[in-house]
């Protein structure tokens, strides 16, 4: 009991200030004699108030209740709220100082909340955290230092020794783009929606036979009833497979505004898959670098999005070169139906694209391939800065050359019939979704 009391007892700053004042009084009493008895009286008064303040704070075992309320999961790169519940059980108002042991990933070593809490009252405090990495985050102890109005001593109370919260890809961003899936009146100027008729799984109607119709689709029962040749008409299946391919090689480790390119791609993949499923298409995910890491077959089940979320949760780059030939082989063997393939990767040099172009062309012959590349926003800022020295001009020239090469690579992909998205990292999700909606409106998927 005594050990616990000592561990919880802390001296307040006001006590040190009073002791400093008393020290000055006793020092002056060497020359001014009547100050000595005044100092003695004040010292005994301080001792009495110190004991009184200690009794006030320590007479109740449960003087205060505190609780940290965490959400089930955090959303990466978004603002997440942490709630703190405080309940004062004392009959006096208190002053509190909260020190929460925030996970090491945030590197916040000076976090504290201060305020006052009336007697027998309860309040809820809220602070915000923005995680920049996926994974497990551990919260330590929640410490609350309590003081009375006297402020001579503090009592430290500790609660909730250790809590775990997992940081998932940005599901908040995914929810923000939900409205795009419900925009049924969306009209793109210059785009014509093509309706294809063919032999697929989705039946459309029964119609009279016309010259040129496939005789294999004759419906003999309907023909007998109508006394005229009737054929089944089919249309392209509406639930098209859409695969998001995530490059996990070294090129995706480049950071922008605290997030790696892989994190931007993962957030976009989740938001885009949500839109695709709500539009009736089947969403799948494949991750690869020098090998195929994980794959999730395309599906449009409502629970499929949770599977995608769990799959994306623990992905990390492996700092190795990416094997696009392996990706082509896997797609040819595993994905038999023509699908839309969105490849999240990055090419910084023309030579890197030229090495992979044969594989990209081979994939584009079998599927609708969309290659996503990232603009280097740091180079853009360098190229747009005013130049004052020769070295600045040189840096701007080099930055401009890299930016020009990136646009040239996008045009080269388009020239070979490969759809391309060249985007800033922060605009990736909305540009990917818009590209999907555009291709869907044009009837290409």
From TrEMBL:
Transmembrane segments: 12-32, 38-58
Lineage, highest ranks first: Bacteria, Pseudomonadati, Bacteroidota, Cytophagia, Cytophagales
Domain DUF58: 206-372
Pfam families: DUF58
Key words of the record: Membrane, Transmembrane, Transmembrane helix
Organism: Mongoliitalea lutea
The keyword Transmembrane is annotated on this UniProt entry: yes
This protein's name: DUF58 domain-containing protein
InterPro entries in the cross-refs: DUF58, vWFA_dom_sf
């Amino acid at each position: 009991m005594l050990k616990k009391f000592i561990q919880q007892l802390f001296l307040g700053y006001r006590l040190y200030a009073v002791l400093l004042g008393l020290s000055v009084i006793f020092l002056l009493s060497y020359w001014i004699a009547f100050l000595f008895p005044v100092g003695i009286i004040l010292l005994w008064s301080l001792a009495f108030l110190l004991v009184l303040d200690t009794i006030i704070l320590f007479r109740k075992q449960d003087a205060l209740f505190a609780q940290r309320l965490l959400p089930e999961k955090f959303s990466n790169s978004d603002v997440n709220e942490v709630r703190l519940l405080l309940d004062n059980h004392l009959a006096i108002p208190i002053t509190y100082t909260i020190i929460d042991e925030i996970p090491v990933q945030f590197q916040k070593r000076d976090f504290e909340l201060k305020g006052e809490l009336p007697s027998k009252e309860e309040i809820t405090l809220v602070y915000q955290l923005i995680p920049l990495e996926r994974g497990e985050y551990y919260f330590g102890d929640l410490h609350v230092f309590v003081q009375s109005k006297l402020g001579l001593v503090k009592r430290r109370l500790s609660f909730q020794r250790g809590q775990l919260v997992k940081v998932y890809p940005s599901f908040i961003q995914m929810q923000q783009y939900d409205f795009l899936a419900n925009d049924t009146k969306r009209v793109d100027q210059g785009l014509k929606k093509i309706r294809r008729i063919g032999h697929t799984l989705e039946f459309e109607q029964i119609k009279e036979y016309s010259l040129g119709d496939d005789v294999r689709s004759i419906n003999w029962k309907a023909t007998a009833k109508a006394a005229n040749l009737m054929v089944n008409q089919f249309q392209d299946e509406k639930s098209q497979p859409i695969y998001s391919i995530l490059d996990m090689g070294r090129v995706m480790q480049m950071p922008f505004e605290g997030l790696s390119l892989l994190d931007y791609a993962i957030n976009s993949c989740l938001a885009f898959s949500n839109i695709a499923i709500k539009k009736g298409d089947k969403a799948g995910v494949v991750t690869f670098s020098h090998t195929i890491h994980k794959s999730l077959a395309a599906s449009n089940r409502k629970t499929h999005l949770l599977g995608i979320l769990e799959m994306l949760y623990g992905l990390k780059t492996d700092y190795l070169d990416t094997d696009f030939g392996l990706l082509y082989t896997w797609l040819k063997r595993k994905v038999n139906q023509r699908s839309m393939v969105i490849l999240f990767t990055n090419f910084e040099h023309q030579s890197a694209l030229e090495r992979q172009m044969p594989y990209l062309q081979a994939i584009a012959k079998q599927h609708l391939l969309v290659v996503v590349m990232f603009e280097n926003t740091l180079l853009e800022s360098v190229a747009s800065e005013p130049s004052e020295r020769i070295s600045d001009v040189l840096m701007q020239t080099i930055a401009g050359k890299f930016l020009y090469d990136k646009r040239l690579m996008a045009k080269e992909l388009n020239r070979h019939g490969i759809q391309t998205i060249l985007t800033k990292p922060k605009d990736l999700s909305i540009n990917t979704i818009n590209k999907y909606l555009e291709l869907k409106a044009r009837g290409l998927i």
